[in-house]
Amino acid sequence: GYALAEEPPPADTVDISDIQVSSTLPEDAETYEFEAEVHRMLDIVVNSLYQNKDVFLRELISNASDALDKIRFLAISKPELMGGKPELEVKIEYDAEKKTLTVRDSGIGMTHDDLVKNLGTVARSGTTKFMEAMAEGSADIGMIGKFGVGFYSTFLVADRVTVASKHPSSDTQYLWESLNGESSFKIAEDPRGDTLGRGTEITLHLKEDCEEYADASTIERLATHYSEFVTHPIQLRTTTTEKVEIYEEDEGDDEDEFSEKSDDELDVAEDEEDKPPKEPKFEEITTHSWKEMNPEPALWTRDKDGISDEEHQAFYHVLSKQEQSNATSWIHFNAEGNINFKSLLYLPSELPQEMATGQLPTSNKGGLKLYVRKVLISDEFDLLPNWLMMIKGVVDSDDLPLNVNRETLQESKIIKVIYKKMVRKVIEMIRKFSEEEAPAKEVELDEEGNIVEEEEAEHPYTAWYKKFHTMLKVGAIEDESNRAKLMKLLRFQTSKTKEGEMISLKEYVENMKEWQKDIFFISGMSREEVESSQFLEKFAEKDVEVVFCTDPIDEYLVQNVRDFDGKKFSAITKDGIKFGDEDEDLEKRRDKAYSAKYKPLTKWLKSLYGNGIMRVAISKRLGSAPAIVSTGEWGHTGKKV
After folding, report:
1. pLDDT exceeds 70 at position 29
2. Which one has a higher pLDDT value, 45 or 472?
3. Alpha-carbon span 135 to 130, nearest angstrom
4. How far apart are CA 234 and CA 91, in angstroms?
5. Which of 185-194, 251-260, 285-294, 404-413 has the lowest mean pLDDT?
6. Which residues, listed in sequence order, are joined to residue 31 by a DSSP beta bridge?
7. What is the rounded CA–CA span in Å between residue 567 and residue 483?
8. Whole-number Å distance between alpha carbons of 408 and 406
9. What is the pLDDT of residue 382?
10. Is residue 557 scored above 90 in pLDDT?
11. Is 430 exposed, middle or buried (0-12, 13-18, 19+ CB in 10 A)?
12. Whole-number pLDDT of residue 337
């Protein structure tokens, strides 16, 4: 992030041009080339046809807020960093005449080396990831902030970007500047001296087709929208022009002339005509003032019943840095007990880009923010396990210490308590979502009004589950303490469900035959594959439902979980399957008779295949197939082999 600025002189007495960054840097400015990946990304941004250019202001406000969070956190242990400037705020100014927009904050600021490194010569991992996502079509310019390189979105609207910054550890304020389309940038000492005190000031010299961003109504609308959930005050410099009447004395009626006249001369003749009243004169007076864009308190500190769905969705967009998709559900709670904290958590509707390949993320950077007494401590804490890294939200606790390092805090017993409660609350949120009423059935009528087709609409949870099922299954494998709750959230296709339809294990158990003791399943790569398996014949004959395990992770799930609601998982492709409706004595005698009858054949087949098979046995489950290969009861299924 960046940070900015000492408050300029009173806005109503200073021309805004006095506080704008110089249009050209000193002649002795240093020139640096952008790192290759950064330059490539800038080319994409500069030449982009992306229509929603408003995102640049979102990124500047977000970066400014990050810089303020950083200085506030560092000042806890080093109060001298504040340097007698306690204000933590962001100020936005525009100049319609000069066609400039300036965003100034009083955050941590940047040194000379920070400017060189952070704004051009070092490609962050986010730069490469953003480029790859753009190439794959899984991201657009509007998602640039999600990759940590949002500053460069300024070139969507600016021909030239000038940055002034002052870090508390440096005695010098520096300027950074680059022109749109150039492969280099310049840095020099600011000839104005230290005008900021501490922080960063970013001035955009707007393109001709982007001059609306120096318009009062446009900037106020955008600043209000993007400042709504920032915890620091965001102020916009507004301009008001009004007409004021000027009062003037009449010519020739001065006091000296009046005093020299005699009493007789003061008599007014009866026929003297009254003088007509003078027209009032006016002049235009322009005043400036600061208007706060986000006067409301932090969303998570408000009464949850007073927060609208629109506010929740807007806050989720801020947290996720993605406006294309909404939150599916959310939970807002106050945890009370030995440890007290407030939290607001959101369930995404779309799979995060980094999870699209099926890999679980190793961190949730930026997605889950930890506050202590409304001071942002970190957005990199592991407050949830990796299988819940898609959750976005905030946690605010008054019980955590402020002045300890991240590593110590991560091992804190308080953090561990928060971790456990958070996991339980997320599972509760997902459970409530799964239990919501399904939408009404869609009915299609013909021209005469008769029902021709009636389709049951897919439950919203089922649609969500199809995207996030891997995370829940990993949770069921890894989190033994919450396993029972997570298993109830899983959904499967079965031999009795329609294509795309899914049921819970609870529903499966309710549908089981009275004599059935196990949950039968079959593994395969797809529904088509398992439906064609000859192992299903006997189960279809007995009208026994079989769960289709077509996810790669399902094998690990049933091996680690073993049972649900006291019912053991049994693979129908293995030995030892028992239905429970047979006469055991009759089955034993029949098995003994067939084994003796076909012993020469089974003995010959075993000698033929040798060590390639464990044994040859007479099957009780074959239908149309003369023979079939199965695995041992404790062995891997054919899919895993």
Report:
1. yes
2. 472
3. 9
4. 6
5. 251-260
6. 186
7. 15
8. 6
9. 80
10. yes
11. buried
12. 84
- String of DSSP letters for 157-187: TEEEEEEEEE-TT-S--EEEEEETT-SEEEE
User: DSSP letter at 602?
Assistant: H
**Under 8 Å CB-to-CB from 120, ≥6 apart: which residues?**
32, 34, 35, 38, 178, 185
- Determine phi and psi for 410, rounding to 5 degrees: -60, -30
What pLDDT does residue 1 have? 43
Q: What is the pLDDT of residue 614?
A: 76
Query: Nearest-CA neighbor of 104 among 236, 291, 225?
Result: 236
Lookup: tokens for 574: 């293995």
Separation CA 593–CA 599 (nearest Å) = 10
Residue the block writes with tokens 């890999």: 359
638 close to 629: Cβ distance less than 8 angstroms: yes
Check whether 218 has a pLDDT greater than 90. Answer: yes
The residues with which 522 forms a beta bridge, in sequence order, are: 548
The answer to whether 561 and 568 have CB atoms below 8 angstroms apart is no
Going along 534-580, which residue ranges are E strands?
547-549, 563-564, 567-571
User: Any idea how long the chain is?
Assistant: 641
* C-alpha to C-alpha distances, 599 to 593, 608, 616, 623, 626, nearest whole angstrom: 10, 14, 9, 20, 16
Place of tokens 């109504």: 217
Tokens of 406: 């991240």
Per residue in 106-156, pLDDT tens?
Answer: 999 999 999 999 888 765 666 677 677 767 766 666 555 555 678 888 999
H or E segment to which residue 205 belongs:
strand 199-206
DSSP for 311-334 reads HHHHHHHHHHT-SSS-EEEEEEEE
Query: Half-sphere exposure of residue 440, counting CA atoms within 13 Å on the CB side?
Result: 3
Strand order across the beta sheet in which 184-189 lies:
30-33, 184-189, 174-179, 158-166, 199-206, 100-105, 90-95, 234-246, 281-292
Plot region of 109 (φ>0 → left; ψ -120 to 50 → alpha; else → beta): left
Place of tokens 């079989």: 546
Secondary structure string (H, E, C) spanning 82-138: HCCCCCCCEEEEEECCCCEEEEEECCCCCCHHHHHHHHHHCCCHHHHHHHHHHHHCC
- Cα 421 to Cα 339: distance, rounded to the nearest angstrom: 10
Q: How many helices (H) and strands (E) does the chain have?
A: 17, 22
Print burial letters for 33-54: b (CB count within 10 Å at least 16), e (below 16): ebbebbeebbebbeebeeeebb
Q: Which amino acid is at 464?
A: W
Cα–Cα dist 346/327, whole Å:
6
**What does residue 242 show for φ and ψ, rounded to 5 degrees?**
-140, 155
Place of tokens 């000042």: 75
| Three-point CA angle 502, 535, 548, nearest 5° | 15
pLDDT at 566 exceeding the cut of 90:
yes
